[in-house]
Amino acid sequence: MVGNALFTKGAYEKAVEAYSNALKKDPHNAFLLYFQGNALVKCKKITAAIKSYEKAIMDKFRGKLKYGNYNAPAAIAVLANLKIARNNSSIRYWVQDCSAATENILIAAVGLGLGAVWCGVHPIFIFEGRMRAVLGIPKNVTPLGVIQIGYPAEKKEPGTKYQESRVHWQKY
Ligand SMILES: Cc1cc2nc3c(=O)[nH]c(=O)nc-3n(C[C@H](O)[C@H](O)[C@H](O)COP(=O)(O)O)c2cc1C
Questions:
Q1: Range of the domain at 141
Q2: Which residue from 26, 68, 131, 160 has the fewest beta carbons nearer than 10 Å?
Q3: DSSP assignment of 69-80, as one string?
């Protein structure tokens, strides 16, 4: 990798340029973004370095979600920490609580003119483990899901799945 060779020589500015060129061909390569962040730190361009690191983490985790490989610039992981649950019912209802929080975030995002998608993590243990690894989430904290947030690429008409036959009055 040209960038790494330049970095090893101490040619950090040129390394940044080399990583940028490589990223033009492979914009979601988390390694390239991470290395570019390191080179930017050496150039004392800390804000730009943080941007590269943040993008590296985004690309790393979304690649681990089978149905969540979107190109959104931001994401919110909704997590449950049962150690700080206020009472027994908070422990038993954590999935519902985190789902309500997720839905509220989705609605708020749309209210701000953004696009958002709920990407499921729990109860797929493989996805939970991957999120823990990428985001450094401890074992006692469970990720319910990840909401990816960006600018909508298309405008969709609101739809409905309402079926009157499924609505029951007084008795099922
Ligand atoms: C628990 C849960 C997990 C979801 N996981 C994903 C996902 O991994 N990827 C995705 O594109 N959408 C995911 N969605 C969003 C759904 O695909 C769908 O967009 C959303 O439920 C709205 O459905 P509707 O447009 O058919 O009404 C998930 C939704 C829920 C409720």
A1: 74-150
A2: 160
A3: ----SEEEEEEE
